[in-house]
Transcriptional regulator, GntR family
Amino acid sequence: MDESGLTRTDLGLFLELNKQDPSLPAYRRLFLALRQLILNHRIDGGTRLPATRSLASALKISRNTVKSAYELLQAEGYIYTRTGAGCFVAELPKAVQGGEPSVGMPQPERTQQGGWVSPGPGLLQPGIPALDHFPYRRWQRAMQKSVSSAGLLAGDPQGDLRLRQEIVRWLGAQRGMPVDANQVLITSGSQQGIYLAANQLVRAGDRVLLERPGFPGSERVFKAVGAQIDYFHQQDLDGVDRLGKARLMLLTPSRNFPLGHTLSADRRLALLNWAQQNDLWLLEDDYDSEFAAGPALSAMYSLDAHERVIYAGTFSRTLFPGLRLGYLVLPLALVQGFLQTRRVIDGGLSLPAQIALAEFMACGDYGRHLRRMKRLYQQRRQVLERLIAASALDGLALVDAGGGMNLCLQLPASLNDQALEKLLALEGVSVRALSGYDPQQSRGLVVGFTAQDRDAMSHGVAILERVLGPLLATGQS
């Protein structure tokens, strides 16, 4: 193909390409084929990949397809670039060989419930989708179709089959996940998914590892079941063996909230190996990865060969919070146990809403809406950055990992960000204190931009400037 040293795997690449789902975009098929060769170490670490033009010519595909595949491989940490030298394969740990798939657990006797408070909407509130751009008429049509005789009956506790099938198609195309509809359990959102996992997999005294920064609601759920909780920072996962024995780890490998970090491929593989060796469950909370900058990253679930990963997704942030629909993707051995716990909680969710969502996805409206929102959020993020840069806040560091639904304003250590959160709430600004997600984190404010237009954001920034300006000058709060 060229002097890169890839020639011995040329046939393997063609074979891997032929294995990929033909319904996927061409760049994603190439990405998956190359990723598989890298994961199987059929392309060694340090190998230089062919130039995009050479590979495109050899495979008879467009150069842009190859460029997009390389960009996604680089974003996930499978390759890296050297200025003037090209793209090279990263050194990755070898996957654990052998071993048995995980098995289900008997259902714990108790079903506890943790409590939390959902904040009301306000200026610059993070995590709220752009309801001013929601396709109400299309959603209304989907709802009208759902209100049939079937839609008025009680549904399957596991969730509407057609919705589960649409989720399977979506995850395969967008997240690289080979999933069967029988593995999908519809929930009322990520929080209920975490609650089900805690009740089904964790017993009192079990050690659970939670990511920091992270949602306080998750911590409350695991405390409610009597877990011993320890914490880790995503950026400190170089030596996973130092984490010790645990029953479950909750993490957001594709996009941490609120800092936006992503977990590189070598760390993902190391965690999967560690989970297999230590009989540990990995609960992957796929928070707002749909809106990350660039092409969609593969889920950690897609790398799991030993059924140690449980994947949690939600539609509350991609569509609207009041929908109250999410899902878990489970190893088949766990499905029945989770269903037993589910029947104790609520027995199932609104069937019309599930049928409407299935229709919304099947006709392509869901995909079109997400593509529009990704562009809109990119524009609104840039507007907020410009407003901050033009204000008295321009001296504050802005943590922006690209994409997503929020930014972080770093504050001097002398300022109490939680006191500021309360003070700003009185002014109608619903930013969140960074230390509320990790007490050891540097002080800051988590600022949303997705739910408001320029005028609303300008008003919110003006209030931030008025409240913070004097405090920044004196260093007190």
User: Anything to note?
Assistant: The chain is about 40% helix and 10% strand. The CA atoms of residues 149 and 170 lie 27 Å apart.
